[in-house]
Amino acid sequence: MPDFKKCFIIKFIDDLKIKSGMKKENKKGISLLEFLLVLSIIVILSTFAVPAWNRFFEINRYNNFIMVVENAINRAKIVAMEKSTNVGVCISDNQILIYDTGYARSSDPCTGTLLFTVTPESENISISSNGTIIFDPRGLNIMVGGNVCIHHNEFNTYYRIIIGRGHQRVEKGSGGC
């Protein structure tokens, strides 16, 4: 078979492959259909993820504030030991106020020199207290049975930090304080 006929037959077969879709071309990039499909999947997933994202941030703010309150109580204890004075933990207007109450033993933790305050970041968080919390120069609570309760109004959950004579523990549950 002459070379001319061979080339013609090979060219004819290649043309048939291209027309029938058998021959693959080297394509780069994505098609418009693929792009729209991926975009629609992202939109559908984001409709479910965005509301959950806000709840996630609120839970994170609540847990962060609980740790801040525990840290503030521990810091009040340390300040009492460092200064060799009594330090009171006072709850007022949804804030935790830490006071240096002086050397005399008092039953009011809300008197003296204000050392620092702790305020919640979210309006859904409320703080309450039961009992009196005043640390003596040894870091022990003068009054027995004081606690700080942190309640989240939207989730209806609470964390109660119970301060004993020489220890503290955390209790959590659902409902009010």
TrEMBL record:
| Family as reported in the entry's similarity comment | Belongs to the GSP H family.
| Cellular location(s) | Cell inner membrane
This entry carries the following GO cellular component terms, namely: plasma membrane; type II protein secretion system complex
Identify the species of origin. Candidatus Thermodesulfobacterium syntrophicum
**Name this protein carries in UniProt:** Type II secretion system protein H
For this UniProt entry, what is the primary localization, expressed as one broad class? membrane
Q: Give the GO terms filed under biological process for this record.
A: protein secretion by the type II secretion system
SUPFAM superfamilies under this entry?
Answer: Pili subunits (SSF54523)
Pfam family name, one: GspH
Keyword annotations for this protein? Cell inner membrane, Cell membrane, Membrane, Methylation, Transmembrane, Transmembrane helix
Domain called General secretion pathway GspH: residue spans: 71-164
Topological type in the membrane: Single-pass membrane protein
Q: Where are the transmembrane segments?
A: 32-53
